[in-house]
Amino acid sequence: MTQKQKQTIRGWAGLIAGSAVLFTFMFVVGPYFERFESVRTFTSYVKENNINAGGIWWTDTELTSEAEMGARSTMRFLPTGTEHRSAFNEIGTLGFMQ
Hints:
flat
């Protein structure tokens, strides 16, 4: 068997294994957690109020955009004393992370 054939087989095996892991989490592990009362309460609340739970991670939702602006402003205008106006130094990195 040539090296290229081995790589092809390894690639297909990785794809199948990854798909099996995703399938297992979606249809076995995920539904298992619905047995817990707190998860059932949360999922029923999301369904009743028609909340797009996946949309909270998108940057175009208002809540996420406001949170991002607040986090960026907090990091940009940290109180650093009289010698600095922001936490960023001349090259744009955070001064306290160096």
